[in-house]
Design goal:
five-stranded parallel sheet, five-stranded mixed sheet, 2 domains, Methyltransferase, Cobalt-precorrin-4 Transmethylase, Domain 2, Cobalt-precorrin-4 Transmethylase, domain 1, 12 strands, alpha/beta, single chain
Length: about 250
C-alpha cells in the first residue's frame, strides 16, 4: 500500500492523527518538499514516528519513483509525505497513475493547504478565480501567462491567488516583493493596465504558523519585509463590503 500523507501548511505539528497512525505502520517513509516549502523539522518528524525519512528531489519522484516510493509498495506499506495537501500538486496524480499500473493500492490522507488556509486573508473563497503560479524570470524565459490569468479574473470581478516560485534545491523562495516586481515588469511589456504601483495587493507569509498578512498598494508592499517563506500574493477583484471591512484588519 502506498500512502500519500499531507503535512499541512506549516510544520510537523499539522500532521493529523490519522497520518501519524499510518506512518507508524509503514516500513519506509519518504518526503518531498520541492512542491511546497516545509517550515518544520525533518528530525522532529523522524522522532515522532521513530523512523528515518528519506528526502526526495524533484527528479527522484518525477522521473524514477519506481526506484523509491513505488519500489516496495506492492508488498509493504510505504509513505510519501508532502507539505500541504497531497493532491494540490499534479505530480502526485502522476504517482497514483503509475502505482495503479503496477497494481499498487494507495490511500490519500488529506491535510490543510493554501487553498483552505488562504481564507485567513479575509476574502471569500468562492470569489477566487483561476490560480496562477509566478516563476522567476530568466534571460530566455519570460512567461506572461500568469498576468493573462490576472487580467481574465479581474474582468469577472474575481480575486487572483498567485503561488510563488520555489527552487528548493537552490534554496530560493520567491518573496511577495519579488512577485510584485515581476508583475510590474510584465505590465511594462504588455501595457494592458491590469497591474500597477497603485494596485491593491495582499501579501501573505507563513500561513498556519507565525502568519503575516499585509494589505496595501503594490508600491507600499514592495517596501515591506515579509521575512521567511513561504509567501503568496493576492490581487483582489470586486470586493464585498464584508471583505472590505476584513481587509482593514491588515492595513
Amino acid at each position: 500500500m502506498l500512502y500519500l500523507i499531507g503535512l499541512g501548511v506549516f510544520d510537523e505539528k499539522d500532521l493529523s492523527i490519522r497520518g501519524l497512525e499510518a506512518l507508524k505502520n509503514c516500513s519506509e517513509v519518504y518526503a518531498e518538499f520541492y512542491t511546497n516549502y516545509f517550515s518544520g523539522s525533518l528530525s522532529n518528524l523522524e522522532g515522532l514516528i521513530s523512523k528515518k525519512i528519506t528526502l526526495l528531489k524533484r527528479g527522484d519522484l518525477e522521473e524514477k519513483p519506481e526506484q523509491n516510493v513505488l519500489k516496495n509498495s506492492l508488498n509493504d506499506d510505504v509513505a510519501l509525505l508532502i507539505s500541504g495537501d497531497p493532491m494540490v500538486a499534479t505530480t502526485h496524480i502522476d504517482i497514483i497513475l503509475r502505482a495503479k499500473k503496477l497494481g499498487i493500492s494507495y490511500k490519500i490522507i488529506h491535510s490543510s493547504s493554501v487553498y483552505s488556509a488562504i481564507g485567513e486573508a479575509g476574502l471569500q473563497i468562492y470569489k477566487y478565480g483561476k490560480t496562477a503560479s509566478l516563476v522567476y524570470l530568466e534571460k530566455n524565459y519570460f512567461p506572461t501567462s500568469p498576468y493573462d490569468i490576472l487580467s481574465e479574473n479581474l474582468k469577472m470581478g474575481l480575486h487572483t491567488l498567485f503561488l510563488l516560485d520555489i527552487k528548493a534545491e537552490e534554496n530560493r523562495f520567491m518573496t511577495v516583493n519579488e512577485a510584485i516586481n515581476i508583475l510590474l515588469e510584465i505590465e511594462k511589456q504588455k501595457k494592458v493596465g491590469s497591474f500597477g504601483p497603485n494596485t491593491l495587493c495582499i501579501g501573505v507569509a507563513r500561513l498556519g504558523g507565525d502568519t503575516t498578512i499585509k494589505v496595501g498598494k503594490a508600491s507600499e508592499l514592495q517596501k515591506e519585509a515579509f521575512r521567511n517563506p513561504p509567501h503568496c500574493l493576492i490581487i483582489p477583484g470586486k470586493l464585498h463590503f464584508v471583505e472590505k471591512e476584513a481587509l482593514e484588519l491588515f492595513k
